[in-house]
Specification:
Length: 534
C-alpha cells in the first residue's frame, strides 16, 4: 500500500459509536426504560450486523471502526436482558399480526404491516438462532476477521472533563473500561472514543499511561490558530504525550447529521415521529406494550417524512432503499472530490474521519444501514478511496505533525454546556465528593488485603460510583426527557455507595444485602477492580 502507483488517493475512516446507559431492573417484572436497549437492538445493532454478514458473504472487503461502550456490552451480555428482549420481540410479532388483520382493507398499510412482521421475524431469527442471543459474539467475529476495529469508551460513558477535579475518578473510568473490554473481546483496544469527544488538556497523558495509542476529538480541538497544520484534519496529529489524535471531518458529518442538509431528512425516508403506539387507540395498543400502560413507540411506523405538512404519505420501503443508494453514491463522490482537492499538496493520502452515533443508523435514520451497505459496496467498486481503521493508518503513515488539543466536545456549541448547566449542575459536587470517598476506601486498604466479603463490598461501591457518573443522566436532565428516572438513578446509586462505605468502615457488611446490590447492579461482574480508584 506504500507503493504510490497502487495506493488509493485517500482513505475513509468510518467510526460508529454505540452506547446506551446501563438500565437493568431485575427487581421488576418488566421496566419501561429497558426498551431503550431493545429498540436499539432491533433497529440498529441487528441491522448493522446483518449488513456486515452480507458483505462478508459477498466477499466485500471493508473496514469500520466501532466504539462499544462497556455499559452497552455488559447489557448485551446479560442473560436476563437477553430473555426480556426475546419477549419484547414476541409481543411485537403479535402486534404486527394483529395489524395485518386490522389493515386488510387498506392496501398501503396492509403491505407495511406484513413488512414489519417479516422485519421482526428476521430480527428474532438473527438474535436467537444465528447468534444465540449473544450479539457481542457477532461483533467479536467481525473483529477477528479484521473487518471491525473495536475500541472502547469510558466505563459508563462519564463526561470525563467534568470529573477531572478528582483524578482517581477519571482513572477508574478508563482502567475499568479497558479491563472489561479486553476480557470480553480477547484483546486490548488500541484506541478510545472519549464520551462526547470531550477532551481536556492533559488527558492524553493518562490515556498514554493506560496503553492506548489514539483517541478522537472534534474538529475545533486541533483546528486552532496555535496549531498550524499542513494536513488540517485530514491526518492524525501527535499530542504532547505522544498520543495520535484523529479529528472529525466537518463536511462528511454535516451531510449525514445536519437537520437541513443531511440525508436523513429526505421526504422519501421513514418518519420517525409517527408511530402506531401514539397514532392508534390506546386500548388497542395496550396489550402489546409496557405493563405501566403508557404510550410508547412500537417501531411500527407507516408514514414517510413527506414534508413539513401534517398530511404524511404512506412509507414506500423500495423507494426509500433506492434513495439510500443514491445518497451513498453522493457521499462517496463528495469524499473523492474532497481528497482530490488535496492531491499533490501532501505526502500521504488524506484521511477523512467520519464519526457517527451507531444508533443513528436504523433507529433515528431507518434507512441508515441500507445507506451504509450501499456505500461500502460502491467503495469496493472504485480505486480512488479505500476504507481503513485508525490502527491500520497509523501503521502505514505515522503522524508527523504535533498539536496541542484544546478543551472541546462535539456537543452543542462545541464545549461542555449541555452536560453542565442550570438543569444538572447539582450533580457534580455529589460525584466529586463520592469519588474522593471512594479513593479514601481504597487507601484504607493500602498494604492490607481485604477479606473476600470486604473485597466484594469495595467492588460494589465502585460500581455504584461508576453508574452515578454516567453522562446520560445529565444529558436527560437537559433534554427534559424521563428526568424523574435520571434523578432517581443518581440518588439511588449514591445512596448505595454510602451504605457500602459505612458498612465497610464499620465492619458491618450484611452478606444478604450485599448480594442483593450485586444482583441489581451487576455491571462488569468478572473484571471490577476497586483498586483503579486509588
Amino acid at each position: 500500500m506504500n507503493d504510490r502507483k497502487n495506493r488509493p488517493k485517500g482513505f475513509l475512516c468510518l467510526v460508529l459509536h454505540a452506547h446506551l446507559p446501563y438500565v437493568r431492573h431485575p427487581e421488576y417484572e418488566s421496566f419501561l426504560e429497558e426498551d431503550w436497549l431493545f429498540e436499539a437492538i432491533t433497529e440498529s445493532y441487528i441491522p448493522l450486523l446483518d449488513v456486515f454478514d452480507n458483505l462478508i458473504l459477498d466477499n466485500i472487503n471493508f473496514r469500520v471502526t466501532l466504539s462499544l461502550s462497556p455499559s452497552l456490552v455488559c447489557m448485551l451480555e446479560d442473560s436476563l436482558l437477553q430473555e426480556r428482549y426475546v419477549r419484547h420481540l414476541e409481543k411485537l410479532l403479535e402486534l404486527s399480526e394483529t395489524e395485518i388483520s386490522r389493515t386488510r382493507n387498506d392496501p398501503d398499510f396492509h403491505l407495511l404491516a406484513i413488512y414489519y412482521y417479516r422485519l421482526f421475524s428476521r430480527s428474532l431469527a438473527i438474535f436467537r438462532d444465528r447468534y444465540n442471543g449473544r450479539l457481542v459474539s457477532a461483533f467479536k467475529k467481525f473483529q477477528d476477521l479484521g473487518a471491525l476495529e473495536i475500541i472502547t469508551t469510558s466505563a459508563t460513558h462519564a463526561m470525563i472533563p467534568l470529573l477531572k477535579v478528582e483524578p482517581s475518578a477519571v482513572k477508574g473510568q478508563i482502567f475499568t473500561a479497558l479491563d472489561y473490554v479486553s476480557n470480553v473481546f480477547g484483546k486490548a483496544p488500541a484506541g478510545i472514543w472519549l464520551p462526547e469527544c470531550a477532551y481536556y488538556q492533559g488527558l492524553d497523558r493518562l490515556l498514554h499511561d493506560a496503553g492506548l495509542d489514539f483517541f478522537f476529538t472534534d474538529t475545533h480541538a486541533i483546528d486552532t490558530p496555535d496549531n498550524s497544520l499542513l494536513y488540517g484534519t485530514l491526518a492524525p496529529v501527535i499530542s504532547p504525550s505522544e498520543m495520535a489524535v484523529f479529528a472529525r471531518d466537518e463536511a462528511s458529518s454535516r451531510q449525514v447529521w445536519s437537520s437541513s442538509e443531511g440525508y436523513p431528512g429526505d421526504p422519501d425516508y421513514r418518519e420517525f415521529y409517527r408511530d402506531i403506539g401514539f397514532d392508534l387507540d390506546f386500548d388497542y395498543i395496550k396489550p402489546y406494550i409496557h405493563d405501566d400502560s403508557v404510550r410508547v413507540n412500537t417501531g411500527i411506523k407507516y408514514y414517510r417524512i413527506t414534508g413539513n405538512a401534517d398530511n404524511k404519505k404512506p412509507y414506500l420501503p423500495d423507494a426509500a432503499a433506492y434513495k439510500a443508494g443514491l445518497h451513498a453514491g453522493d457521499f462517496l463522490s463528495r469524499r473523492i472530490k474532497q481528497i482530490e482537492s488535496c492531491a499533490g499538496r501532501v505526502d500521504r493520502p488524506p484521511l477523512v474521519v467520519a464519526p457517527y452515533d451507531a444508533e443513528l443508523f436504523g433507529h433515528w435514520w431507518f434507512e441508515g444501514p441500507i445507506w451504509l451497505d450501499s456505500l461500502i459496496r460502491q467503495i469496493s467498486q472504485q480505486e480512488s478511496l479505500s476504507m481503513i481503521t485508525p490502527s491500520e493508518y497509523l501503521s502505514i503513515y505515522p503522524p508527523r505533525e504535533k498539536a496541542v488539543p484544546v478543551p472541546s466536545t462535539w456537543g452543542m456549541n462545541g464545549y461542555y454546556e449541555f452536560w453542565l448547566n442550570e438543569e444538572n449542575d447539582w450533580i457534580y459536587p455529589h460525584l466529586h465528593q463520592t469519588s474522593r470517598r471512594m479513593r479514601g476506601l481504597v487507601r484504607r486498604f493500602d498494604g492490607i488485603a481485604p477479606d473476600p466479603l470486604e473485597e466484594r463490598a469495595l467492588n460494589q461501591a465502585a460500581r455504584s460510583l461508576l453508574l452515578a457518573q454516567s453522562s446520560d443522566w445529565a444529558f436527560i436532565m437537559k433534554t427534559g426527557t424521563t428526568v424523574d428516572y435520571a434523578y432517581r438513578r443518581i440518588k439511588d446509586e449514591l445512596a448505595r455507595f454510602y451504605y457500602l462505605e459505612d458498612a465497610i468502615c464499620q465492619g458491618s457488611i450484611d452478606p444478604q444485602r450485599l448480594a442483593a446490590l450485586e444482583t441489581m447492579d451487576n455491571i462488569f461482574p468478572e473484571t471490577m477492580n476497586y483498586k483503579h480508584f486509588g
